UniProtKB/TrEMBL annotation:
PROSITE patterns: HTH_TETR_2. It holds the Pfam family TetR_N. It comes from Neobacillus citreus. GO terms for molecular function: DNA binding. InterPro entries: Homeodomain-like_sf (IPR009057), HTH_TetR (IPR001647). Keywords: DNA-binding, Transcription, Transcription regulation. PANTHER family: HTH-TYPE TRANSCRIPTIONAL REGULATOR LMRA (PTHR47506:SF3), TRANSCRIPTIONAL REGULATORY PROTEIN (PTHR47506). Residues 34-53 bind DNA. Residues 11-71 form the HTH tetR-type domain. This is TetR family transcriptional regulator.
Length: 207
């Protein structure tokens, strides 16, 4: 997270730095990104940068967390629209994510992120539910889910279901970029995999 000095900046200066970061992380993956390029574009000295962020990783994950917050809000809104239906919500949200990722403003940034995906990136994009504020929002979201049509025993199993679907979601987004799939191919693969989860994988013989 940024240091408090960043949040004390006027909003226009915050936005300028974030836009410069977005430009650099869209140009190259995180490990190749240059703080020198970011501060030059933002028009700030190097010393000021370190008053706001620990390093480029700190800035990168803050940028991802801001973007993931937008997706989280859309997910919750879609969940309400579908009266808590988890599978329909994930499918609709996935379509919105494809559209969002294809937007020229975001495409290269997310392409670089997904092609270099690691556990921390996935957690950040999944809204950092291990942090206190995110835990609260996660619980608020869980309470919106209609569990009456899910074959689960308790909240712990619901948590596992969400983690499994999240893993499938990120896998398909990575594949979209790795295999250069069309939107239609990406969506069809995703729907097929969620349908398998929905039906269950173990065949029960009739007595």
């Amino acid at each position: 997270m940024p240091k408090q000095t960043f949040f004390h900046l006027p909003k226009d200066k915050q936005d300028t730095l974030i836009q410069s970061a977005r430009k650099e992380f869209s140009r190259v993956p995180l490990h190749e990104a240059s703080i020198a390029n970011i501060i030059k574009d933002a028009g700030i000295p190097r010393g000021s940068f370190y008053q706001y962020f620990e390093d480029k990783e700190d800035l990168f994950y803050y940028l991802l967390s801001r973007l993931s917050q937008i997706n989280y809000e859309k997910f919750v809104s879609t969940l309400k629209t579908h009266d808590g239906d988890l599978f329909n919500t994930f499918i609709d949200s996935f379509q919105l994510m494809i559209k969002y990722l294809r937007n020229p403003e975001h495409q290269n940034l997310f392409k670089n992120a997904f092609l270099n995906m690691n556990y921390k990136m996935q957690n950040t994009l999944a809204n950092n539910i291990y942090e206190e504020d995110q835990k609260r929002r996660y619980l608020d979201m869980v309470n919106l889910i209609n569990v009456s049509n899910l074959s689960i025993k308790d909240e712990q199993e619901l948590h596992h279901v969400i983690k499994i679907i999240n893993a499938v979601t990120f896998h398909n987004l990575v594949q979209m970029f790795v295999k250069d799939l069309s939107d239609e191919e990406t969506l069809q693969n995703y729907i097929s995999q969620l349908d398998l989860l929905k039906r269950g994988l173990y065949k029960v013989e009739h007595q």
